[in-house]
Amino acid sequence: xxxxxxxxxxxxxxxxxxxxxxxxxxxxxxxxxxxxxxxxxxxxxxxxxxxxxxxxxxxxxxxxxxxxxxxxxxxxxxxxxxxxxxxxxxxxxxxxxxxxxxxxxxxxxxxxxxxxxxxxxxxxxxxxxxxxxxxxxxxxxxxxxxxxxxxxxxxxxxxxxxxxxxxxxxxxxxxxxxxxxxxxxxxxxxxxxxxxxxxxxxxxxxxxxxxxxxxxxxxxxxxxxxxxxxxxxxxxxxxxxxxxxxxxxxxxxxxxxxxxxxxxxxxxxxxxxxxxxxxxxxxxxxxxxxxxxxxxxxxxxxxxxxxxxxxxxxxxxxxxxxxxxxxxxxxxxxxxxxxxxxxxxxxxxxxxxxxxxxxxxxxxxxxxxxxxxxxxxxxxxxxxxxxxxxxxxxxxxxxxxxxxxxxxxxxxxxxxxxxxxxxxxxxxxxxxxxxxxxxxxxxxxxxxxxxxxxxxxxxxxxxxxxxxxxxxxxxxxxxxxxxxxxxxxxxxxxxxxxxxxxxxxxxxxxxxxxxxxxxxxxxxxxxxxxxxxxxxxxxxxxxxxxxxxxxxxxxxxxxxxxxxxxxxxxxxxxxxxxxxxxxxxxxxxxxxxxxxxxxxxxxxxxxxxxxxxxxxxxxxxxxxxxx
Length: 627
Prior knowledge:
This protein is an alpha+beta fold. It contains 14 helices and 26 strands. A seven-stranded antiparallel sheet has the order 3-2-7-6-5-8-9. The chain has a five-stranded antiparallel sheet with strand order 16-17-23-20-21, covered by helices on one side. Strands 10-11-12-13 form a four-stranded mixed sheet. A hairpin with a 2-residue loop joins strand 24 (562-563) and strand 25 (566-567).
């Protein structure tokens, strides 16, 4: 039985003709309310992941739960599919279990608040936000165990519960949840900040209804959805062909020695609609890299990518969803069966964006992006300091963004455009560590007419003994280049002891003991390059050498020779002629680097790490095992 919305006023909304000025005012008021939600959160949260980095995703939706403004697509549809209780004025829902909301959130660290907004006895809108909690219990600090074989090892799972019932705060359920976490002060503050953000949006919706009337507000949201539908319909017709297009990419490993794991998607247009079929994606992993991909979330990813590439002026919302059909095979890496572990799903999430880039550009290569949205690197550091106080860091790192049709990829940037780095001053003030180095890794971006963004080389010096964990990807496979561009460099992680001894560690490693004085060199991947490197302006290459983004040796990838700090024009022309003559045919549309078997054969020599073993696909019936 679906959720029951208890409304004291059952009068249906009356459609109203909306003039362009009123529509524009309401649209921008909603945009501003969404920004105000973020501002409220940043000013009141405590954890560095939310307060400093912005690992939170707000939205405002219409009365049917369709996102009007936001970033991640609507979480409400997945909740309404499975929730069987009642909702009435004064209620507010808290949840975190992906399996109890059809993947509306995709791992248990993300705590979601849903606030139905009532006015005059009728449900008129929703506000919602989720944020990543630094710790929710479980077997490891940070609650994201790499070797977890089920979600039961990943901390507290919160089904949809009423944190407010008819306006009354449920202190008992909050106390129960906070009892599970190693960082209750942060989690409680962050949860309160998320609630406050949703209430801000509710007030702004109420103010708009007071100013314009409820029927006008609802009609405006309908028109904003319809406008997006019309725009996306046009984009789909012009950018996507009826012939099937397929692309596949890989998650390097699962942290337990197996990999790579394939994600495959086939796209085609059928009439005015697009079919995205993920058949051929590998089966679910017995580790935590599974990504419970909600179909509407994938539709939003697709829509955002289309809009940002072809027409960034379009307001993205949920209005176009009926133009997209998504098929995800059950039991696959992207639709795992309960209770498969999900905490490490960011690697697959990042790879989805690379795959969308590979799909959408094949018909129109001039709009093709290289790879580089490849992961969301995490570092965890925890322990007890000399005064007996517990410390626990969760930090998201950045990699290289891909080379693009209209320019170079940004150096050391986030997969999510709204994220920011944790300031080094914050890290050094609140945690027992020092940042010895924070710079781009020169030459890590793939060479091209438009260079891929460089990765980051960040060096931490630990001041107290503790335990660290590392979550990253793109250490085995390369971020591929396009239209003749070269792949970006792969990620590396190195522990350096106080005596100078260095040890290469895996990019998915945990329970690594460090001592005071040890250093971690955390080096992320670069973005793939776009276009022929030999067409890049030599003067720009010389400038980037002075900026520390490219080395003198690295300049030769562009056929550029530097002598005494300046471009040697004659030598450059000669080198470029030599490189062109050595090419065997036309430049490839995609440059993946070596194939998988060559990568396996050379892995230890090139990376210092053994190659992952091919997955055996003996996936146990986890539901039966759990019983």
